């Protein structure tokens, strides 16, 4: 069984920064690609960012220049650094390992 745990969400004002963390544990071997998704109330789940097992990264267009995904080398632990947050970033953020194992998510709310 694989456990995926996200942390780091919160309530912030527009323009602020947050760093989300995600750690996978359990019966998992090797280094896996990991993704961040988000879902706002009443909206479809949206892919946000991906980091491959070798460290290659991609982010969705709407967060380019503001969000950065990174990982600890050799571990299934990833971060999502979110800068210049805007209200449209408000959502529950989910970490996914190998597009298979999902965490419970962490809430990010951007509001003045």
What can you see in these coordinates?
It is built from no helices and eleven strands. With 112 residues, the protein is mostly beta strands. The strands form two sheets. Strands 2, 4, 5, 6, 9, 10 and 11 form a seven-stranded mixed beta sheet that branches. Strands 1-3-8-7 form a four-stranded antiparallel beta sheet, with no helix packed on it. The chain starts with a strand and ends with a strand.
Descriptive key words:
112 residues, mainly beta, seven-stranded mixed β-sheet, globular
Outline of the structure:
Helices cover 0% and strands 52% of the residues.
> What is the averaged pLDDT score?
95
Percent helix among the residues? Answer: under 10%
Secondary-structure content class: mainly beta
Uncertain segments are: none
DSSP strand count: 11
* Gyration radius over CA: 13 Å
Per the principal axes of the C-alpha atoms, what is the gross shape?
Answer: globular
Oligomeric state, counting identical vs distinct chains: single chain
Helix-strand pattern: EEEEEEEEEEE
* Intertermini distance: 40 Å
By DSSP (H or I, 4+ residues per run), the number of helices equals 0
Largest pleated sheet: 7 strands, mixed
What portion of the residues fall into strands of 2 or more residues? over 45%
């Amino acid at each position: 069984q694989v456990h995926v745990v996200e942390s780091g969400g919160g309530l912030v004002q527009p323009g602020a920064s947050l760093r989300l963390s995600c750690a996978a544990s359990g019966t998992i071997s090797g280094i896996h690609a990991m993704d961040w998704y988000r879902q706002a109330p009443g909206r479809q789940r949206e892919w946000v960012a991906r980091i491959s097992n070798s460290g290659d990264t991609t982010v969705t267009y709407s967060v380019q220049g503001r969000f950065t995904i990174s990982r600890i080398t050799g571990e299934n632990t990833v971060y999502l650094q979110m800068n210049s947050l805007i209200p449209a970033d408000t959502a529950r953020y989910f970490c996914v390992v190998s597009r298979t194992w999902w965490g419970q998510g962490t809430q990010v709310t951007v509001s003045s």
